[in-house]
Write the structure tokens for this entry.
Amino acid sequence: MADQNIDAKGLQCPGPIVATFKAMKEMQPGDGLTVEATDRGFIKDIEAWCHKTGNKLLSLEDSGVIITAKIEKV
């Protein structure tokens, strides 16, 4: 299992989701991805994207400034 990190802070929609999609394409099932973003729309976007693609949203934290999503590829 390999873990990757994406720094999508400062990117506006659809930047964080596009970066997530590109990274996940290269990953294997069971690999983990942590995405940090500042775009408030990322919260709903990543929930919907994981639901649509079947990938697991392990956690979603909002510090008020940075949103951190941890995802597992299935």
Observations:
- The chain has one domain: 3-72.
- The CA atoms of residues 4 and 33 lie 5 Å apart.
